[in-house]
Amino acid sequence: MANTVPDISLNDGNTIPQLGFGVYQIEPRDTAEAVGRALEIGYRHIDTAEMYGNEAEVGEAVRASGLDRGEVFVTSKLNNGFHRPQDARRAFESTLSALKMDYIDLFLIHWPLPTRYDGDFVSTWKALEEFQRDGRARSIGVSNFQVPHLERLAAEADVVPAVNQIEVHPYLTNEQVRAYGAGHNILTEAWSPIAQGRVLDDPTIVDVAAQVGRTPAQVVLRGHVPRGDIVFPKSTTPKRIEENFRIFDFTLDDTAMERISGLDRGEAGRTGPNPDEFDYIPA
Ligand code: NAD
Q1: Per-residue b/e over 206-231, b at no fewer than 16 CB within 10 Å?
Q2: Residue 157 has what pLDDT?
Q3: Given 24, 43, 52, 280, which residue is catalytic?
Q4: Is residue 193 within 6 Å of ligand 1 at its C-beta?
């Protein structure tokens, strides 16, 4: 079985590689090297954010790779302090200039911040619609949106988000939000797909890994694939970057998939903040 990363169709006609490389918590000084390694191994999708402080180094690595710009799918996200449309326009321009790119493949609202900006993320979303209309964002989407937030966009905006990037891993399957996405043509991107490493010593995961002769990380990442979710694990260790890429040359049977889904702990399984409450605005 060849290890080929599938391209998945978004609701706007563009496609996205189902596996990418995440750069959250990678120091700017280490980012170009890690992304360079990922591109060498075969990753063609990088997930960054203004909040991560390493957009410039992602752009640098893409240019240094020798790949054509069109061969690499790049995502970034609007930081929490810039939800007002005028600020969003400025922030989007500075994302493009940090990346030194004239377009981005996917631009997301990082957090809905329902308790900030008088609860208005709709005018922010309309700014993203502008970026898509003028061609500088090929696709636009949201992150950490809960069902009521998505319902509000459906009622008040024109464009359906291409993706919703939310926390999903075996301890938090986030089924309700995923189901809303599936029913409304919004792909789910699973952030912290291995729960920042916390699920890797789970006895069930260790057991399934032994049965299929793969590592726990490979088993957990592979488990996201048949569900249709997009994943972008993070690592700065070359061996792990390579290991996390090799998830398409084996499969998990239904029993293994059911055992993994059975690990869901609901809200208690969250590793990150609850999007209904999260209100952090960087200084
Ligand atoms: P992750 O689930 O990808 O876990 C990363 C950690 O797991 C690493 O730091 C390392 O310690 C460990 N690890 C990685 N590969 C391993 C392997 N093969 N074996 C053993 N341990 C391994 O966590 P993440 O970085 O939080 O999430 C992935 C990406 O999702 C981020 O880099 C970022 O791009 C995105 N993200 C988005 C949001 C959001 O709010 N939209 C929030 C968090 C993360």
Answers
A1: eebbeeeebbbbbbbbbbbbebebbb
A2: 98
A3: 52
A4: yes
Alpha-carbon distances, residue 176 vs 27, 200, 222 (angstroms) = 34, 24, 21
Instruction: Please report which confidence band the pLDDT of residue 283 belongs to, taking 50, 70 and 90 as the band edges.
Output: confident
Query: Minimal CA–CA distance to 43: which of 243, 201, 229, 222?
Result: 243
Pocket test of ligand 1: the residue of 235, 279, 280 to mutate, having most ligand atoms within 8 Å of its CB, is 235
Does ligand 1 lie within 6 Å of residue 243's CB atom? Answer: yes
34-69 tens-digit pLDDT? 999 999 999 999 999 999 999 999 999 999 999 999
Contacts within 8 Å (CB) and 24+ apart, 181-185 = 181/150, 182/228, 184/150, 184/154, 184/160, 185/11, 185/160
- For tokens 């309700």, what's the residue? 176
> What is the per-residue pLDDT for 29?
98
Q: Which residue(s) pair with 73 in the sheet?
A: 45
Per-residue pLDDT tens over the stretch 237-248: 999 999 999 999
What distance lies between CA 274 and its chain's CA centroid? Answer: 17
Q: Is the CB of 143 under 6 A from ligand 1?
A: yes
pLDDT of residue 130: 98
Q: Cα separation of 38 and 25, whole Å?
A: 16
pLDDT reported for residue 94 = 98
Residues 219/252, Cβ–Cβ less than 8 Å = yes
Beta-strand ranges (E) seen in the chain are 7-9, 15-17, 21-22, 45-47, 73-78, 104-109, 137-143, 163-167, 187-191, 230-231
